[in-house]
Write a structure and sequence with these properties.
Length: 470
């Protein structure tokens, strides 16, 4: 009898211990989650000593800007016969950008940080198809710019200037000249797609550090001293929304869009969740720009204030291009996605050789959802200019309609390196996974011990009762 009693007491004790372990495991889940959440909140604040600060102050990754030019194959036929331009993509020409740490960093009393982003580009021959001295037949930037800015009654004067400088609709220039500038004979000044660039800055930016409210970390407070933009003559389109896209507030919700501001396109945009991926052993959420970003106002009414010129946009019905003249010091630049992805068919039909592809030409961000860090991104945009018909300018007499002409498209991208990925896996995700394993092990083992001991107790008790009856 004593041995039976001892067995039952032992099983009861085991069941109690199992229940206690299971309860502790259950309690550890919310407690552990709270601990992890508080740790991530502390490490997400942008201040010296935190991982967020180290990630923010300098990219620590190779940020490349790859460029593909549209080389015109039939310039004479376009001018003399009114033929559609035939384009051949030439590239990539690769530059290292965004490798300098942020400059003039100032921590303000209202938990914001002011800084400048240095602009610098270094050519990387080994990642390019040729040298910066390669010749490209492209649209004459000065002629296209002058055509957009000079009223038709003054086309006689423009025609005389073009003849005197021997300028036509197209020109042959090196990659270096087109990007960084050359002295143009028509305008008697320096002309270039990104001139000036090296040695300049984007900003000042003023962003929230997250010290008082982690949900605001990285959110832009002001840009160039203003809380809103001044390019679009409309409060909605002039809104400064979100971050600079290098990071977002922690605990990213895949059901909500991510907002960020891009100085390259002079506006804020939103990105939507697309899928969850594995990046070097780290789960990331991929967010991408939806087709509605550059849709025409009749499809996306929110874009009504981005339509600047009804003449070139066919009464604001053309989708896929953004007129940036108001934020490019009057330069008639039109921005789009590469190959006019998601653009109106008329844009692609005006020239030959474009092949828009969603996989190759779309912009995306891969964001680690716990920290909000952007671990991989690919920002793709295309630079275009416009020209149209003229009864006076010889080079434009055969042109039939206004043409948004693609000059170059670029892919600015980066991905965290293996060392940073290993560090993130070990310090953050490793701790989270270990705690998760401990929680589940305690809960599972506790429940298993409780069930086994309780079942065994019932069997022993039943057998004991049977033996007494017998």
């Amino acid at each position: 009898m004593d041995s039976c009693c001892n067995a039952r007491c032992g099983l009861i004790a085991g069941a109690v211990i199992g229940a206690v372990v299971a309860v502790l495991g259950g309690i550890l889940i919310p407690v552990g989650d709270m601990f992890i959440e508080e740790t991530i909140k502390q490490e997400s604040v942008i201040e010296p000593g935190t991982p967020a600060y180290e990630n923010w102050v300098s990219t620590g990754a190779f940020v490349s800007r790859q460029l593909w030019f549209f080389d015109v194959q039939n310039p004479r036929e376009v001018v003399e016969q009114g033929a559609d331009p035939v384009l051949r993509e030439k590239g990539p020409y690769t530059y290292m950008v965004s490798y300098l740490p942020k400059a003039n960093i100032t921590f303000n009393a209202n938990h914001t940080i002011s800084f400048l982003m240095p602009l610098e580009a270094i050519f990387v021959p080994i990642m390019s198809v040729g040298s910066e001295d390669d010749i490209i037949t492209s649209l004459n930037l000065a002629v296209a710019g002058a055509y957009s800015l000079v009223p038709k009654p003054l086309h006689v004067m423009l025609e005389a200037m073009m003849k005197a400088s021997n300028s036509s609709l197209f020109q042959r220039r090196t990659v270096k000249e087109l990007l960084w500038g050359y002295r143009d004979p028509l305008l008697k000044g320096v002309v270039g797609l990104f001139s000036p660039y090296n040695g300049t800055y984007d900003g000042y930016y003023n962003i929230f550090s997250g010290k008082d409210d982690v949900s605001k970390v990285g959110i832009i407070d002001t840009w160039k001293g203003s809380k809103s933009l001044s390019f679009w003559n409309d409060p909605y389109c002039n809104m400064l929304n979100g971050t600079t896209a290098s990071s977002f507030p922690p605990f990213v919700d895949q059901t909500k869009p991510l907002y960020f501001f891009s100085a390259d396109i002079c506006r804020s945009v939103s990105a939507l969740y697309q899928q969850t991926l594995d990046l070097k052993g780290i789960p990331v959420y991929r967010f991408g720009l939806p087709p509605s970003t550059f849709a025409s106002p009749d499809v996306n009414p929110d874009n009504h204030c981005y339509c600047k010129d009804p003449k070139t946009t066919k009464n604001c019905t053309i989708a896929g291009v953004l007129d940036l003249s108001s934020c490019q010091e009057g330069n008639p630049i039109y921005m789009s996605l590469p190959h006019f992805l998601y653009g109106s068919p008329s844009l692609q039909e005006a020239v030959q050789g474009l092949r828009p592809n969603e996989e190759h030409h779309s912009t995306f961000l891969d964001v680690e959802p716990m920290t909000g860090f952007t671990l991989r991104f690919s920002k793709k945009i295309q630079v275009n200019m416009m020209y149209g018909p003229s009864n006076v300018i010889t080079a434009l007499k055969k042109v039939k309609d206004y043409t948004i002409f693609p000059i170059v498209w670029m892919d600015e991208s980066a991905e965290l390196d293996d060392e940073t990925a290993e560090l993130l896996r070990m310090e953050l995700l490793g701790s989270i996974q270990l705690l998760d394993i401990i929680q589940k092990a305690m809960l599972g083992c506790g429940v298993a011990v409780f069930v086994i001991c309780l079942t065994a107790y019932c069997i022993v008790r039943r057998n004991h009762n049977k033996s007494q009856i017998a």
